[in-house]
């Protein structure tokens, strides 16, 4: 089994992703590349809210976001993608050219369900190389800004309060 490469990798021995971060994340026109990521916000009472969002890599507009007190799964990411497409192109419309959908390698983004649904919506799923957060730098920068400018300063007594404040 070892000679055939059928054994599981031991801790720390898994080969590294050969892809490297090369090039720019930002693009010069809207609706060419969108990026997405997630974050977790803590409440004063110990509850946690998980948020996923979609940004345009040109104008950096937050096209849509979803939030939950549970985990972000493929279904929620599908809702996020569909609402982002509807916000940009209208209901029952799709982009004329495929839009790159850039994400990290989180299970909710790499799920077969997510990838196939993205293609139906006119999105082209692309994942970043492992351990290369700069490959999705626009999304990572938004996470940092949101945590610094909102989460550290906002009133966060419980999940219900935070969820109602997210829209603003």
CATH topology (fold) name: Nucleotidyltransferase, domain 5
Mean pLDDT: 89
Shape: globular
Oligomer: single chain
Q: What is the helix content?
A: 25-40%
Annotation, overall tally of beta strands: 5
CATH class: Alpha Beta
Model regions low in confidence, pLDDT < 50 over at least 5 residues: none
Relative strand content: 15-25%
Query: How would you name the CATH homologous superfamily?
Result: Ribonuclease H-like superfamily/Ribonuclease H
Instruction: Label the CATH architecture.
Output: 2-Layer Sandwich
Distance between the termini: 56 Å
Number of helices: 5
What radius of gyration results from the CA coordinates? 18 Å
Strand order of the largest sheet: 3-2-1-4-5
Major sheet description: 5 strands, mixed
| Total domains | 1
Write the topology of this structure.
Blueprint: E1 33-42, E2 48-56, E3 62-68, H1 74-89, E4 99-103, H2 107-110, H3 112-120, E5 123-127, H4 137-151, H5 159-166
Parallel strand pairs: 1-4, 4-5
Antiparallel strand pairs: 1-2, 2-3
């Amino acid at each position: 089994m070892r000679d055939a490469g059928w054994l599981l990798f031991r801790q720390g021995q898994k080969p590294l992703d050969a892809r490297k971060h090369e090039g720019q994340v930002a693009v010069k026109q809207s609706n060419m590349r969108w990026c997405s990521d997630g974050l977790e916000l803590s409440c004063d009472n110990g509850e946690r809210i998980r948020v996923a969002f979609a940004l345009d890599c040109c104008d950096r507009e937050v096209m849509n976001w979803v939030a939950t007190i549970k985990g972000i799964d493929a279904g929620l990411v599908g809702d996020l993608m569909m609402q982002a497409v509807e916000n940009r192109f209208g209901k029952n419309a799709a982009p004329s050219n495929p839009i790159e959908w850039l994400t990290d390698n989180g299970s909710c983004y790499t799920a077969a369900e997510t990838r196939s649904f993205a293609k139906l919506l006119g999105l082209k799923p692309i994942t970043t190389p492992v351990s290369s957060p700069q490959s999705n730098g626009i999304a990572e920068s938004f996470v940092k800004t949101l945590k610094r400018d909102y989460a550290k300063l906002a009133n966060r007594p419980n999940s219900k309060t935070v969820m109602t404040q997210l829209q603003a």
